Amino acid sequence: MGSSMVEFDNFTYHIHNHRTNLKEGKHTFYLLCSMRNRYKCKGRGKLEVDSEGDNRSFTPTQPHNHPPLLEELALHRFKLKLKKAVEDADTIVPLRTIFEEVSQGSSPVEFKEISPFMARVRKKKEYVRVVS
Ligand SMILES: [Zn+2]
């Protein structure tokens, strides 16, 4: 359940590599399909971002061997929302309360399955607060 995923055109990717071109002020991220292990998918893409981070352009470079996986997308989007909610909430707020607020009664995943992810997000937040 990695959290460093990005989404383009209804597919989810992991960042595989990153190159910075200082002369052109441009960052290039090389992306691999997040389903490459499960489906042996060779789907790849390239994301170019300027140094301000404003102009993003995504180019698919290798096709996927599967259609967009709507359940994976729903889970990815839900996790992004949960991550932000955990980061924004005070650490005394129970994780289950945050989960219930974000899911509003419909969630792609059970609390017990996602709570370790939420706990990691919270731990990171506490660590940052202690060291900074
Ligand atoms: Zn794929």
Radius of gyration: 17 Å
> Low-confidence segments, ≥5 residues, pLDDT <50?
none
Integer count of domains: 2
SSE-based structural type: alpha+beta
Principal-axes shape call: globular
Number of strands: 5
Largest sheet strand order: 1-2-3-4-5
- Give the mean pLDDT: 90
Order of helices and strands: EEEEEHHH
Report the biggest beta sheet as strand number plus sense, adding barrel if it closes.
Answer: 5 strands, antiparallel
Number of helices: 3
Distance between the termini: 28 Å
Tell me the strand percentage band. 25-35%
The kinds of small molecule bound in this structure are:
zinc ion
- What is the percent of helical residues? 25-40%
